[in-house]
Each structure stands twice: as structure tokens, then as C-alpha cells.
Write a structure and sequence with these properties.
Blueprint: H1 2-36, H2 43-49, H3 54-61, H4 64-86, H5 90-100, H6 106-120, H7 135-147, H8 152-176, H9 179-203
Helix pairs in contact: 1-4, 3-4, 4-5, 4-6, 5-9, 7-8, 8-9
Length: 215
């Protein structure tokens, strides 16, 4: 019995240690991505940049693609948390856009869209990147909108539309470098959404599109 408990203790200890080591490496990789970008680095270059070996990165993340996906998902969690902690009003959404459109974020956003395209094309190692890539944002934003009094069906539509518009304009921004133009378009979108909800309160839903407030 003692031997069994000792084995279980060792297994738990090793699992916790491995998890902590992975978390440290991931935090270092996220910092490197924010500081200078990592999309163009080989796995050995990535390892050198964050002070580890490529073997350790393979052990914890499986592959270069696995590490890049982990970094991108960590940044997504950070930005989603920042938005939800501040709120989902138009002012909050605009503050989030200003963070996301900052040139300091562009290397990470290029990596996000690169991985997105690889996953859509079925590139090995990126198969799970698309899992929850929309719903992870839509569900919490919709829940926050419902708490603000928005109809649940409309809240999900608005949340999905908001995510799509933000991502589309970020892609526009990366392609053109026109931060003022992309920002003006997003600001206009927020104004239209505010008007839409006001109109829905006054006039009801569009009869031709159930749950979608009139624009």
C-alpha cells in the first residue's frame, strides 16, 4: 500500500512540475511574441530566444505549430479577459479595438491569421486551432449582453457579428496599415449597433429576420 501511495505521489508531483514548466515556457514565448514576434523563427531559434532547448519545446508543445498555437491562444485569452473585465458597452469595445489595433499587436495578429489559414487548409499540427475559435468569444460576450438586458437570441447574433467585424477589420489593418481608416469603420459599426438596439427597443424585431434588430 505504501508503495502504491508513493507511486501516486510521484506521478502527481511530476505532472504538476511538468505543468509549471510548460506554463513558464509559454509565458516566456508570449513575452517574446509581444517583444519581437516569433512567426518567422525556427523551433531552435524560438528555444534560444526564450532560454531553453528545442527538445523541451517539443516535449511540452509537441511541435513548432503546437507552440505557436499555444502562444496565440494565450494572447486570445488575455484580450478576451480584458474585454469582459471592462464590459461590452460600445465604449468598452472601442477601448478593446484600440488595444488590438496598436502596431505592437500586429506581429501576434499576423501569426493568428497565418495559423487560421493553415488550419483551414488542414496543415498538420494545426487541426485543433479552429476548435472554439468563434464560440470562445461569442458565448461570453453574448452572456454579458444578456446581463445588460439584450434578448438572448439577439445577443448571440450581435456577439458573432461583433467578433466577425473586429477580425475582418484587423485583417484589413494588417493588409493596408491604415489604422485610421479601419478605426473609423469600427467606430461606425459601433454606432450602428447602438442605433440598432435603440430601434429594436422602439420598434421591435425585423419580421423578415427573426431576432435581428432593424438597422
Amino acid at each position: 500500500m505504501v508503495a502504491v501511495w508513493l507511486t501516486l505521489y510521484q506521478m502527481v508531483h511530476l505532472t504538476v512540475a511538468a505543468s509549471q514548466a510548460r506554463d513558464r515556457l509559454l509565458a516566456a514565448a508570449v513575452q517574446q511574441a509581444s517583444a519581437g514576434g516569433i512567426a518567422d523563427l525556427s523551433l531552435r531559434e524560438l528555444a534560444s530566444a526564450i532560454g531553453t532547448s528545442h527538445r523541451m519545446l517539443i516535449y511540452h508543445f509537441g511541435s513548432r505549430e503546437g507552440l505557436l498555437i499555444a502562444v496565440t491562444q494565450a494572447v486570445e485569452v488575455r484580450e478576451r479577459t480584458a474585454l469582459l473585465d471592462s464590459g461590452v458597452t460600445p465604449d468598452d469595445a472601442w477601448a478593446s479595438w484600440q488595444r488590438l489595433s496598436d502596431p505592437k499587436m500586429w506581429p501576434q495578429e499576423r501569426l493568428f491569421f497565418e495559423l487560421y489559414s493553415y488550419a483551414l487548409l488542414g496543415r498538420p499540427g494545426t487541426e485543433h486551432f479552429l476548435t472554439g475559435i468563434v464560440e470562445a468569444w461569442v458565448a461570453p460576450i453574448a452572456a454579458a449582453l444578456v446581463q445588460m438586458g439584450v434578448d438572448p437570441e439577439v445577443a448571440r447574433i450581435d456577439a458573432r457579428l461583433g467578433v466577425a467585424v473586429a477580425r475582418g477589420l484587423l485583417l484589413d489593418l494588417l493588409a493596408t496599415g491604415d489604422r485610421d481608416g479601419a478605426g473609423a469603420a469600427y467606430h461606425r459599426f459601433l454606432r450602428l449597433m447602438t442605433h440598432s438596439r435603440t430601434a429594436a427597443d422602439d420598434l421591435g424585431s425585423d419580421p423578415e429576420v427573426p431576432g435581428l434588430a432593424p438597422m
